Amino acid sequence: xxxxxxxxxxxxxxxxxxxxxxxxxxxxxxxxxxxxxxxxxxxxxxxxxxxxxxxxxxxxxxxxxxxxxxxxxxxxxxxxxxxxxxxxxxxxxxxxxxxxxxxxxxxxxxxxxxxxxxxxxxxxxxxxxxxxxxxxxxxxxxxxxxxxxxxxxxxxxxxxxxxxxxxxxxxxxxxxxxxxxxxxxxxxxxxxxxxxxxxxxxxxxxxxxxxxxxxxxxxxxxxxxxxxxxxxxxxxxxxxxxxxxxxxxxxxxxxxxxxxxxxxxxxxxxxxxxxxxxxxxxxxxxxxxxxxxxxxxxxxxxxxxxxxxxxxxxxxxxxxxxxxxxxxxxxxxxxxxxxxxxxxxxxxxxxxxxxxxxxxxxxxxxxxxxxxxxxxxxxxxxxxxxxxxxxxxxxxxxxxxxxxxx
Amino acid sequence: xxxxxxxxxxxxxxxxxxxxxxxxxxxxxxxxxxxxxxxxxxxxxxxxxxxxxxxxxxxxxxxxxxxxxxxxxxxxxxxxxxxxxxxxxxxxxxxxxxxxxxxxxxxxxxxxxxxxxxxxxxxxxxxxxxxxxxxxxxxxxxxxxxxxxxxxxxxxxxxxxxxxxxxxxxxxxxxxxxxxxxxxxxxxxxxxxxxxxxxxxxxxxxxxxxxxxxxxxxxxxxxxxxxxxxxxxxxxxxxxxxxxxxxxxxxxxxxxxxxxxxxxxxxxxxxxxxxxxxxxxxxxxxxxxxxxxxxxxxxxxxxxxxxxxxxxxxxxxxxxxxxxxxxxxxxxxxxxxxxxxxxxxxxxxxxxxxxxxxxxxxxxxxxxxxxxxxxxxxxxxxxxxxxxxxxxxxxxxxxxxxxxxxxxxxxxxxxxxxxxxxxxxxxxxxxxxxxxxxxxxxxxxxxxxxxxxxxxxxxxxxxxxxxxxxxxxxxxxxxxxxx
Lengths: 406, 483
Ligand SMILES: Cc1cc2nc3c(=O)[nH]c(=O)nc-3n(C[C@H](O)[C@H](O)[C@H](O)COP(=O)(O)OP(=O)(O)OC[C@H]3O[C@@H](n4cnc5c(N)ncnc54)[C@H](O)[C@@H]3O)c2cc1C
What we know:
A: alpha+beta; 11 helices; B: FAD/NAD(P)-binding domain; 7-stranded mixed β-sheet; 15 helices; 22% strand; binds flavin-adenine dinucleotide
């Protein structure tokens, strides 16, 4: 880079969270460099299901009962995200195919109904009003669902947006506010010198040019590297307990709209929705496999599809929405998401390592715009409009020190 | 399907010449052999057979067809082969628990009328052939504009002539053969238009070795050429189709002279009245199943796009996955047969039925023949391809590139000029939906990559292909959920 190599903030990662953070920071007047090792929106943010889920998800409920209370601490972020999504299209001045026509979480057995009820009352305590529908009420709301469903939790604000569009729109808006973006550039070693961070950037070789390395400095760095956040932290001599998990997605051919809602299941991994183009996206968190390289999981290749996952995912989906039977399965793909042990995100910095801000984890499509807004508040003003202490990286220092050599 | 998936030693995908040759090489070694093809009878595109209930007189009686027809006769209905016709390999997966020691193993989804069946295979031979490469120009999506090969398929398998007046345009000599077959079937040919200048055919004289080894092919083409001339068919050189006109169907097509770089000169256009246009600008190989499991493929503009790379036993970079025929590079039926035999030896060697020396014995003659075929194929590929710029130079802004998702050239250009970070075909796909439709990008992938590579001034290798996603062909969900 020839002109400037000193920025207020260097954001690492060109996914939804990095782009949202860069956008709100640039809009707030900071000089921002966002660095992406590949292309924008090509990892989790461009490969996810696009669900906006504000109810507690199956993977949270699924854990041991006592933990449900603990997982429910995500709720303030979910509530904030409802507003952020309702405003995002006007904020960015563009169509993101945001649909908030409601979401249904289904229960088939008596046990599942009980679970659903417990979940709803917990959500109510946190301020989210989900409505419980029983038997024929479910059919009335969603006649395309199978008859066997005993109950459903309806959250009126749930829905979906198009992952193909959101991250790119945020990136473009960030650039309009003066942010700089480097793609095909990987952030390597990060060193704190005085009050600044020095980041070594390795730009891929391209036609007529070898691999290039150069340094930039930032008053703050934001680790928005998704499933790779652990590696980025390591490069700064820190520890960030993020596990990379590969997941499956399925898409059908396009047809006339018939599913207006987001469909989930209370005890099975499932998400079903119909996007504006007419395709039905089916996912919910079925596993894929990492390719191996030198005997280790290879995070740089696409994760390999597990055919059993496809079959089971489709079976659950078709049982819930029988009309899916005649749709053609068109395309399956995988994406890699970064997960924490307690399912809550890692947001913020620890006092011992000032200027190293982390923003990863949880349902990062739903919550990404909110993370970006909160992180920019933190960096620009030192305060956040929502308490992010429950998500502080400091919570890991007891068992698993996030602070390393520094 | 309940219980454990069925298992086979050798799974051959496709039942064309490469497949049949490999099968006959592998037969007699006490191995279970399964051959899968979407068609109802073996033969592939080259020997496309009519349905059994139909009597076809003089079916493919040309000399070119003889060796492959002999092969077909010896193996069709062979009882030691598990034939699966009307069946599609929808997806190929590495087998997480390979059957047998030393075998890498794959499992496949076979979908047919009855549903989907999972089959595990110790070795797989991909002999899935090729399909016609579309050229995009204003009007190419009109009904009546079709591949010359499709016209030929309808003749071979259904004895149907595709129009009352058919114009053939392209760069491949196959269009002469198709024109001849149309005339024989009683149809009319409006003209045959080559993008090459008239003298290009003469440049074959610079390759006397090839001319000698493949004399039969050349004399056959020359005979057809003069037969067409005698029948009064106009054969025009140095021109390309620039537009197909009509509403609801083709009524006319214009052709214009092009220069050696593929530039269209505005003057001297000719309009042909016709109700069908056969495009014959070459082929793209069906390598998606191999790419699906990560086999290395390299781009070749003139030999069929993303060609699967292989070793001297026709084994791809994915152990246990062999390739033969067009998927290794367009070379025709004779070459496919030779590769099929070599792949058969490779399979026998990898399964331990032959040691290397024995396999070499079975392969060596074919290896020598393969070298000759390769020389011919390279030479033909260069002669039979249009100039590079033609692929991207004929479209108008509103010309559709992806007909499944209705993505126009203008939309691609806009996306690329606004989103300057886009460097790969997959990123372009994610942003514009190009290639996301029912044909899964088969028709538009090469054009998309070429537009991107021209715009970004970079190679097709850098741009990459659309990711070869599972499933390889769309499958109804209930076929998958009933298994
Ligand atoms: C299949 C699937 C379905 C999902 N469905 C949903 C859903 O329906 N709803 C929902 O809310 N969430 C969903 N998620 C989760 C959601 O997609 C992620 O939480 C979210 O996209 C995370 O955004 P991100 O920006 O952190 O990650 P990413 O989009 O992965 O971005 C991280 C970026 O950092 C880059 N990077 C990494 N290391 C470096 C480095 N050293 N230098 C430079 N760049 C680097 C990477 O290349 C990558 O582009 C799903 C995830 C998957 C995989």
